[in-house]
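Aim 2 progress. For Methionyl-tRNA formyltransferase, the working sequence is reproduced below.
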Amino acid sequence: MRVIFMGTPDFSVGTLEALVQAGHEVVLAVTQPDKPKGRGGKMQYTPVKEKALEYGIPVFQPAKVREPACVEELAGYRADVIVVIAFGQILPRSILELTPYGCINVHASLLPKYRGAAPIQWALIDGETVTGVTTMQMDEGLDTGDMLLETEVPIGADETGGSLHDKLAAAGAKLCVETLKALEEGTVTPRKQGESPTKYARMLDKELGRIDWSRDAASIERLIRGLSPWPSAYTLWEGKTMKIWAAEVLDGDSALPCGAVADVTKTGFSVQTGSGLLRILELQIPGKKRMSADAFLRGYRMEPGTRLGGE
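Predicted structure tokens for this construct:
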């Protein structure tokens, strides 16, 4: 097929590669505009732009995809289908209906679960044991189009947002190729979505990572894994931001209030939560790299009863 590919972050790159390797003619890559990065403010290409240029694929970076000039630009490529994966802008009907096969979206959840911008992280935070990828025929709603194909991906007990991102990106790339083949052969039947049984997977922000120690230990541990590597879970210690990168749930409780350090050993420390103790395994403080809890305790003093959190 002649494909217009629309995507922006790392999650999209594997699908672009898979389409090229499967023999599809990717005639255009549409991605978000470059942004300045770092202290020098040097313009940074999006991951999709970098990969497209490697393949010699033309790149188009409209600030607003709804502009008539943008639609006219896309129409000029006479594509058979538009593949969309984590593009970052809402598409108007004029683009959704631009090609014979419309716009096919690769979404990182088992729809209708976890519609929205951050399905990978919210599945972890909510304690799901299985997630997956769904391809759908896009409509004007937010992830509400008819479902085409899906594939399940189990969630490991130590899964992080980063590791699950990579698994789903690979699964999505394979599923997209299978979906285009099924569309060409007429072997796929679109299925309507029902009501979503989960809340909308809203975009992540740094405030989401602030640990509420009154919550139970298991939900805090899932938050830590779900927000790794970004935006990360954190608490306050002696007025400093302490990022928590890994922890484990312990049985039992102490008599101390939520957020208090319950015990300290040579290898780590545990914190009282609203229900259960959370043993901190890996952390990071300002100006330092990630470190194990025992490495932290070799350089810093942590006493039982110390309160984490606060203002």
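The mean pLDDT is 96. This observation will guide construct design in the next reporting period.
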